[in-house]
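Moderator note: this is an archived Q&A kept for reference. The question asked for a predicted structure of one protein chain; the sequence and the answer are reproduced below.
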Amino acid sequence: MTNFMNNNELLFKNIFDTEDIYNPRVSFDDYGYLPKDTQIFDIITGREFAIMPNLPIICSKNVNQKDALELLQSTGLSIPKKIYRYNNKKDYHRLLNKCASMKKTIIMQYPHKQERLNSLSYNVPPNVTLDLSNKATITKLVNSSNVVPRTIIDYNTLKSMSFKNPIVIKNGDGSPTAGGYGVYICMNEEDLSKAIPFFAESHQVILETYIHPEENLCIQFSCNKSGHIRFLGATKQLISAGIHKGNVIGNSVQVDSAIVTEGTSIMQKAHKQGFYGIAGFDVIIAKDQFYFIDLNFRLNASTAPLLLMPFLSKKYSKENGQLGTFCFEFTYEKMLDSLYKLMHANVFFPLSIWNPKDYCIKTPPSVIGLTFFNTDSELLTNLTEMSRLGFKKL
């Protein structure tokens, strides 16, 4: 356990300065095509606690509170050395200003408007991250044979389109996207008619040939300031109607070396543009051909469980974990009690624990975490047990 956690700490020390502040929060001002649900983006501010014991972190006051941190620490995991908590939008902006005034470098998952945070406070200039993550510029980084056939059109052209073949429409103006939001899969005329008004705010969109994936992976890499690149591993993505619903992490997920080679090449090009940190690339595989469909130059939803899985696998004697978000139908206190029971039974490991008390909107207690399994039947059994206790998968 100790060796693994030391290795994990060394990974981040090798990439970032230990005085850097990690900020996972999406901008309150600019959600782009992301769902405008503050709880979604508040709860994920606790997702990386268990992998960043040596970095200060910004998070919502409702996530990983003292009793939840005690639960995490009971497993042998460390917590961030300093936690900066915000209450609401106004408090969050005040906190950003405070961090900037302390001359602290901030690791920004999502760039904010200049008036909210000066670009000099970022660890990587925001224009670099925005350009690298822009879906319209993927061909600058990926070998053309590994990009789905695509065209870029303006919105007026989209409005006049009629359905011919299944297509994927993506936002092409660089607005924030994640988890499949900002992407519309059109399998028929009805889908297209819904997609057209959805993209009304975009001056241009990307049309991609629809390819039914046999596999959908997220491959992840790290790169430090000097350009040393490390392949961190791959996770299987769980997608429903084009929206990310979780990942499978563990021995059941394999990745071809050619995909890793292409991903390494992308990281090398990104480093030349000024990027360092962790990135995750979405890859689909169909008929022995692989395609890079999205490049995320930030920590991804499955980064924490991917890095934790070697430790968790040994501790809980499980080869695989399925990442998911669950709401709980009873009280927060009862949820914590149930989480202890699930952990002791080697069923579930929590990453981010949400207490809705004093939140601006009435919401149920929730948790992001890993359901353990060695076989598919065991996964079904464990999910059934969680449902019986009052956990509902989102």
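Archived answer notes: The mean pLDDT is 91.
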